[in-house]
Amino acid sequence: MNGLLPLLVVFGGFAAVLVGFVWLARRVRRRGTAGGAVGAALASWEEAFRVTAHEAHVEVQAQARRQAPVLSPDGKWRPTR
């Protein structure tokens, strides 16, 4: 029993750390608080190991920068002549 206790403590600590990471990942995904640094780090990793991922990342950034057209405050939109 004395030889098993340190092994249980190590594996218990490892399991607690993994559970903490799972909890943190769920919270970040739910709230969307990953931030720009995590997105940039993942983009650089994908760029290095996946060739087509860089093109997809650039397209996603371009889509995020586009602005949706805003309706006129005085009514429906009508094309100008």
Your description of this structure?
The structure is a single chain. This protein is mainly α and 81 residues long. It has a domain at 34-65. The protein is 72% helix and 0% strand. It is built from three helices and no strands. Helix 2 (35-49) packs antiparallel against helix 3 (51-65). It is elongated.
How far apart, in Å, are the first and last alpha carbons?
88 Å
Helix and strand run: HHH
Helix content: over 70%
The proportion of strand residues reads: under 5%
Give the integer mean of the pLDDT values. 79
Cα shape: elongated
The description of the largest β-sheet is: none
User: How many beta-strand elements?
Assistant: 0
Radius of gyration: 24 Å
Topology:
Blueprint: H1 4-31, H2 35-49, H3 51-65
Please supply descriptive tags for the structure shown above.
81 residues; mainly alpha; 3 helices; elongated
Quick recap:
72% of the residues lie in helices and 0% in strands. By secondary structure, the protein is mainly alpha-helical. The protein has a domain at 34-65.
